[in-house]
Design goal:
By secondary structure, the chain is of the alpha/beta class. The protein has 6 helices and 13 strands. Helix content is about 25%, strand content about 25%.
């Protein structure tokens, strides 16, 4: 089985459990969505390949920062939104694992929307994103030494909206801005969301 391996806290927990299953004989090969996930998977002995070599994946498991109506998602606070979206789009099935606090009635009320942009287009992207009603903030590196740089060599603007009521339309509008590489809006992609709730799991489907 060919698995896409997501990025972030929930995805890391899945990768750790997957590593235990691999050690007991589970036959899979993984495609990581970030360098951080690649390093974690390698440390656990999970066989890895590239997306080019794997082709279509059977399943991708990932987390999300927010889950809204219709299983529309905001992803990317971990900085891997573009690779996460490419891997999810390359998969027959895309399943998301979250805690109950991530399920919201409206996207964007609590969480900013990450938008990855090429450095040369940063100023233009900031102006155009502001014209769409957001307050874009350039993400800083964790060490505080300059801007955050994605695995693709780009910057991320965290865009605060009052709310996102039409995520599909907003995603299209942002992607039309020259210099934008991708957005953290995942619309019509998740097949189901597994929500950890108390001692059980609630399954949301589209």
């Amino acid at each position: 089985m060919k698995l896409g391996l997501g990025t972030g806290r929930a995805a890391n927990e899945f990768v750790r459990v997957l590593g235990e299953r691999v050690r007991t004989g589970l036959a899979i090969v993984g495609v990581p969505t970030s360098e951080a996930t690649r390093e974690l998977a390698e440390s656990l002995g999970i066989p890895l390949t590239t997306l080019a070599e794997a082709g279509t994946l059977d399943l991708t498991i990932d987390g999300a920062d927010e889950v809204g109506p219709g299983l529309s998602l905001i992803k990317g606070l971990g900085g891997a939104l573009v690779r996460e979206k490419i891997v999810a789009a390359s998969s027959r099935r895309f399943v998301v694992v979250v805690g109950a606090e991530k399920v919201v009635p409206r996207l964007g009320v609590k969480t900013p929307l990450p938008v990855e942009v090429v450095p040369f287009g940063l100023a233009l992207c900031e102006r155009r994103l502001a014209s769409l009603g957001s307050k874009p903030t350039l993400r800083a590196a964790a060490q505080g030494s300059g801007p955050f740089v994605s695995d693709n060599g780009n910057h991320i603007l965290d865009c605060k909206f009052a709310a996102i009521d039409d995520p599909g339309e907003l995603d299209r509008a942002i992607r039309e801005i020259p210099g934008v590489v991708g957005t953290g809006l995942f619309v019509g992609m998740a097949e189901r969301v597994l929500v950890q709730q108390d001692d059980g799991v609630r399954v949301l489907t589209r």
